Amino acid sequence: MAAFEPKFRAAMQSRVRLLDQIMGYIVRRKGKQMRPMFVFLTARLCHGPTGELPDASYRGAALIELLHTATLVHDDVVDDANYRRGFFSINALWKNKIAVLVGDYLLSKGLLLSIDHGDFELLRLVSTAVREMSEGELLQLEKARSLDITEEIYFEVIRQKTASLIAACCGVGAASTGADAETVARARRFGETAGLAFQLKDDLFDYGPVGGAGLIGKPVGIDIKEKKLTLPLIHALRNASWLERRRVLYTLKNNTGKRREIEEVMAFVNAHDGLTYATERMHTLAADALAELHQFPASPARQALADLLRYTIEREK
To answer: What is the predicted pLDDT for the residue at 213?
Structure first.
């Protein structure tokens, strides 16, 4: 990660002063950088415990971060969000037009980084993830209008929106070392299953104390306020009476984000074991991911990936 930092900064540089200023701001407010960690640990898993990782591994991690950052910048414009990771968003500081162009710039830098070095397999893996992320977002928006998301649709949405990018990280890490197609596919399966568990944990954070803050500053109850049906609520609705279901869906559809409305939905989810069910599914997915991971030979990298997976589902913030 220490070696990656200057390489990533270099990949973002621009001769346009405004762009360079914004790129510097983006680098300073970076998050936990878990996605590059997945790339490097998977690369080390496939490359072996010793020896310098190939340059392609660093370019793959930079590609992931560039395209992921681009989607976040565009998401903030779409959501009219003023904050990201506790900092002002790009659109809040420089307005929507510049934010959209910045996202486009990041996308182009990622594409050119891969094309210039012939990393076409890495580009294919990441481009597939970006396509799936867009499809997942649109599927969620389509279903949110009628509030008819089933558990099956929910898992398809989070597989595309979240898990596809973690799968791409692991696939890129493996492919960057020259691993064969079967090994790359196995790494992707681990990443996808880990990504599903990761998203379930994020959804569970939404059911903390009202007025508190969940993961990376995400306000508790925001999914309810935005009328998003996540697994805890989907399970509770499935196990409720027709009358209860109708009442809660009405509250959800017409809620204005008031504390009373959010607390009502939270109480309903708790009463119908929604949190317990979602937690159990999360742990099952984590176990499935570990089983996939243990098909690789034992190594410090494998242990580190297992620890990273445990961190994602056990963290408190």
So the answer is: 41
- Contact between 172 and 39 (Cβ < 8 Å): yes
Residues 282/201, Cβ–Cβ less than 8 Å: yes
d(CA 311, CA 68): 21
Alpha helices in 118-180 (DSSP H): 120-144, 151-158, 164-175
Stated pTM of the model: 0.86
Condensed to tens digits (0 to 9), the pLDDT of residues 242-290 reads 898 888 888 878 777 678 878 888 888 888 989 999 999 999 999 999 9
Residue 245 corresponds to which tokens in the numbers above?
A: 């279901």
Distance in angstroms (rounded) separating the CA atoms of residues 260 and 16: 49
Could you say which of 2.102.10.10, 1.10.600.10, 3.30.1050.10, 1.10.3720.10 is the CATH number of the domain covering 4-314?
1.10.600.10
Mean pLDDT score, 149-156: 90
